[in-house]
Write a structure and sequence with these properties.
It contains twelve helices and 18 strands. The protein is α+β, with helices and mostly antiparallel strands. The protein folds into two domains: about 100 residues, Helix Hairpins (Orthogonal Bundle); about 300 residues, 2-Layer Sandwich (BirA Bifunctional Protein, domain 2). Strand 12 and strand 13 form a beta hairpin. Helix 7 packs across helix 12. The chain is elongated. The relative contact order is 0.14.
Length: about 425
């Protein structure tokens, strides 16, 4: 959501920003609706004021035994006219809200221009991809041979884009999540949260999944929605709240199930567990002071990077172009991990600074120590990281020629000291 005053003051700048998002000019339509809405409200206020004045004059006329018929007729006419004026104001407000709710966040000035991922800019590569003296396999080949990834059973249970993980690989999957939670809580200063995976409409509206992206989500028969990411619940913990300035930043994390319909992913990543309807993530969210959200964004990205460093995985960091960023983001860094089986980098984390875009929708504010009133906070979110994709990366990067998988040293204490998941495991 946007500050209407800024659009009134800087319509050309707003249209340039929407142009960077591959949208046509929007300001004229918004400002016309805004003007008509304000005119309708002004007319309604004038009518209310005149009704009150006339009602008072009727009382005075009656006390003085003067004729009040004309005033009574005027008040009656105002009472008949005001509901229509109220309805017009509400309708214009609803139209304005619908348009603003469907527009993406303004890209930051340091975000590359471009229509899609081809315009993303690589910032750095960290670590060296492993070298094998054999042809590395993809995770689904390794997992099926080990008896640890069962796509056939998952298909019988739930259909395509689900996975049953068994035995030592199931424990490795759990170990990765536990490791990430411990790292973010014990060393990175995040507070762990256990939050619902079913939410109401207004919660998804607050983080901008609704109204535009309902087709990407699963909805229950009672009208609740399955979360696509814990960003939804963690960020909305700030909904309708006013924080003291000294209480910022607020950093929280959670390990949750996530659900996505993958409506636009037909034919993409159909083998294996790269793109699933149900998956798990460790999510990080920060509620930050506007003056410090840029540095908080760098810090959050570094927290996600630390996960990959300690797992010994090669990765790169890219800044997304204006056309590739998520709807609510002002600036996004993606972490892409090296997958030997695919011989390429694939996204494993996305860290975004949303500025006050979500905060305006959620009415999340803080009270400055100096001055009066309140101001909107900035919200940030990042995968810390996707658990299933981390499992894929570990399997492919730590595979051995015989199909076994070495357990990274940092995970062994979560695996009861196990060092290798063997072909008979």
């Amino acid at each position: 959501m946007f500050d209407l005053k800024w659009i009134r003051d800087c319509p050309e700048e707003f249209d340039r920003a929407m142009g960077r998002r591959a949208l046509g000019p929007q300001a004229d339509t918004i400002l016309d609706l805004d003007r008509r809405h304000r005119d309708a409200l002004s007319s309604l206020q004038d009518m209310q004021q005149r009704r009150n004045e006339a009602s008072k004059a009727i009382g005075e006329a009656k006390r003085e035994s003067r004729d009040a018929d004309a005033l009574i007729a005027e008040v009656s006419e105002l009472k008949r006219s005001m509901p229509a004026q109220e309805q017009e104001a509400r309708a214009l407000a609803a139209q304005l809200h619908e348009i603003l709710s469907g527009l993406p966040n303004v890209p930051g000035p340091d975000v590359p221009d471009g229509e899609d991922e081809s315009a993303n800019a690589e910032l750095r590569c960290v670590g060296e991809p492993p070298q094998f003296d054999f042809a590395p396999k993809q995770h689904f080949e390794l997992g099926e041979a080990l008896g640890g990834l069962d796509f056939e059973a998952a298909g019988k249970l739930a259909g395509a884009r689900f996975t049953v993980i068994r035995g030592k690989l199931a424990r490795l999957h759990r170990a990765i999540a536990q490791f990430m939670l411990d790292l973010h809580v014990d060393e990175h200063g995040f507070s762990e949260v256990n939050s619902p995976v079913l939410v109401r409409d207004e919660v998804l509206y607050g983080t901008a999944q609704l109204p535009k992206f309902g087709d990407d989500l699963f909805r229950t028969e009672d009208g609740r929605w399955l979360i696509p990411t814990a960003e939804v619940t963690l960020t909305n913990l700030a909904m309708d709240r006013i924080f003291e300035e000294d209480a910022l930043p607020r950093r929280v994390c959670a390990h949750t199930l996530c659900f996505r319909s993958e409506a636009g992913a037909a034919g993409k990543d159909t083998r294996g567990m790269l793109r699933q309807h149900q998956f798990e993530k460790v999510e990080m969210v920060s509620i930050a002071h506007p003056d410090h959200s840029a540095e908080e964004h760098e810090r959050m990205t570094a927290c996600a990077e630390e996960v990959l460093k300690r797992l010994g995985l090669a990765y790169r960091v890219v800044v997304l172009s204006a056309g590739d960023m998520g709807f609510g983001a002002r600036k996004t860094y993606d972490l892409e991990v090296w997958l030997p089986g695919q011989d390429t980098y694939r996204e494993i984390s996305s860290c975004s600074n949303c500025w006050d875009f979500q905060a305006r929708r959620m009415k999340a504010r803080y009270r400055p120590k100096q001055g009066k009133g309140t101001a909107f906070v900035h919200t940030l979110n990042g995968s810390g990281v996707a658990v299933g994709r981390a499992l894929i990366a570990v399997m492919e990067n730590y595979q051995r020629a015989d199909g076994s998988i070495e357990v990274p040293a940092v995970l062994r204490r979560y695996m009861g000291g196990l060092e290798v998941i063997a072909a008979d495991g």
